[in-house]
Amino acid sequence: MQPFVPIGMRPPGLASGVNTELESRRGPGSPYVDLFPLDEHAARRTTTVDVSLPAHSRDVIAVRLKGQDLRGHARRHAVTASADVRLELDADSKEIRAVDGADAVADDLLGVAVGSGYRRRMTDWLDDSLLGSLLDQLPHVVFLVGYTQMLDAPPEGESPAAQERLVARRDGCAAYAPTATIPTWIVRYGHQPVPRGPVISPDHPSADWHTFPALPPLSLRRARLLDVCPSEGGVTVRSMFRDTNVDRNSQSTVLHEYTLRVDLDDAHRVVDVEATPRVLPWRECPAAASSADKLIGLAVSDLRSWVTPNLQGSTTCTHLNEAFRALADTDYLLSTIVPA
After folding, report:
1. Cα–Cα distance, 138 to 47 (Å, whole number)
2. Which pLDDT value is given to residue 268?
3. Which listed residue, of 184, 261, 299, 311, carries a Cα 20 to 30 Å from 322's Cα?
4. 17 vs 128, which has greater pLDDT?
């Protein structure tokens, strides 16, 4: 039994610089190294959403959305779509103040707060196109940059905000199950535990990805890949995502990473799915991978609307759910290689 520690006290082990209890609660830490090349009969979508914190509190949050759709070919792959959008967000309200690179949607984006209600307000634009996919990821990645702030200034003592978050999110995903690390830490020490993932070399474009810049200090990137390949009797889908944090010393660490393999029948319904956790912050998080089985039998085109209301609770993962939703882009990508 763990000794009782009053709320607000420092966790044990910090005097030596290593919190031994917290280290024992860390999740898997094996980033995927060899990204698979694009098959000549497949199509691929790659996206990156970069969020950079302001140098000063009154500055804007800089966001860059980049991506491309690629059609495989035996000699040379063909780019079928590309996007490069820059946004500026108010650091406090998260309202979009400036848009560059998305003229068609700029008027609808300006003034929208990137948070609760964003997807409802922007629903007409959040389709299976490349731009739609990028815009759909925006609120989740902006939310994640809170981890960048936490890593830069680790919380100590009692935090009312952490207590409020615990009440709001209790049982919301595997990380907030009653005995999971986050609730345990908040109840015992009054603040949220700090996730520290494996150190990696700075992200750089791999073969068959779009180009993207190096991240500046105090930034976070979600990189995502979706491959679709017609196969005998159906479709094979491979996917991955990685959340990379860069601290003020330009050290890159992985916060979350999953790979997915999905088999579809000729009606594009899920017949088999495997979710593999590569990097997750806490030891209870990988249990959510089994929630992938609930996709079996569903039409892949329905997943964007189906996932959020149906995959909730302590057996699920918020970040994995985002990857499930993105599988709805499969039919669109297939249309770029297979006649409709």
Report:
1. 11
2. 97
3. 184
4. 128
